[in-house]
Design brief:
single chain, alpha+beta, Arc Repressor Mutant, subunit A, Alpha-Beta Plaits, about 35% helix, elongated, DNA-binding, activator
């Protein structure tokens, strides 16, 4: 990552527009942000090079690719040592069902966000993968009944 730059109002506007539509053309982005196309392109490149923009991706409807069940799980480890943390983190990174895994402070050690086809698929993952990771003492699973809000857009 290059030097962190100080964001001005135009940079923030660029980031807001790109978060809402990552496929916008440079010409349209420039127009919406009141820039020339070359200045717009230069600013977006600078935002990427500085690490503000980390990538672009297509957002896929989970239900249409047989990942309609959203699960959160609290994981409590039996020991909080560097080797147990690393073993658990490596296993979470390898699992395609795990979308996010966060080490947290509080009553448990990790919070996992996962997507699976259905509850039987979750049970297979829980029994064959999650609880078999060395150091896992306890898990609490929360199946999502309704997604009230889900966004990838940060308030900038």
């Amino acid at each position: 990552m290059a030097n962190i730059l100080r964001l001005d109002d135009t940079d923030r506007r660029l980031l807001r527009v790109l978060q809402a539509d990552g496929r916008i053309s440079n010409a349209e982005l420039a127009e919406r942000c009141h820039l020339s196309p070359s200045a717009c392109s230069d600013r977006v490149r600078r935002l990427r090079d500085s690490g503000y923009i980390t990538g672009f991706a297509a957002l896929v409807d989970p239900a249409l690719v047989e990942r309609g069940v959203l699960i959160f799980v609290e994981v409590l480890l039996d020991r909080t040592t560097p080797d147990v943390f690393e073993t658990f983190a490596a296993a979470a990174r390898r699992s395609p069902d795990v979308l996010e895994c966060h080490m947290v402070a509080g009553g448990f050690d990790y919070l996992i966000k996962a997507r699976v086809r259905d509850l039987p698929a979750w049970r297979v993952f829980l029994e064959e993968v999650l609880v078999r990771i060395p150091g896992v003492r306890e898990t609490r699973t929360y199946a999502v009944l309704e997604e009230v809000k889900s966004t990838t857009q940060l308030p900038i």
